[in-house]
Amino acid sequence: MQALAERVERGAEARYLLKDMWERMLGIREKALKASGGHEPSLFLATWLSRPLLGPGDWLPELIWLAGARPVLEAPGADAPRVSWEAVNQAGPDVVALAPCGLDLDETAAALQHVGRMDLFKSLQAFKSKRAYVCNGAHYFNRPSPRLADAVE
Questions:
Q1: What is the distance between the terminal CA atoms of the chain, rounded to a whole angstrom?
Q2: Is the pLDDT of residue 70 over 90?
Q3: Rounded to whole angstroms, how far apart are CA atoms 56 and 78?
Q4: Residue 84 in contact with residue 50, Cβ under 8 Å?
Q5: Residue 116 has what pLDDT?
């Protein structure tokens, strides 16, 4: 974001915005850890639902950490890793979030049904513990933008 702002001669505004975003996100991490007594729940975030699933790559492991959780099956700074539902089940994350690239909430729920994965999703311990979520990937997770701070929240 800073590089783009510099190219359009808005570097100072971007520095202010990015500083504010980082302070906000670090504050969220601090609150989350305080609320959980310092426990970082493990979290798997799927960015695509077909076989194989795509897990958290690029900036997403860092977002998960900023939210006060520990990413599993992640690839920080790299392309989203390809993982199976079985690998997710074996990793046993405390929390599972589905945020497919470009899909909103309704489209994600429909895609989960359409690709015939609802049974696999429901078999996860996180689902049985009511800690599995369908997220709006298009608005919060899939693009590097100021909305990433909203995703952490």
A1: 20
A2: yes
A3: 9
A4: no
A5: 58
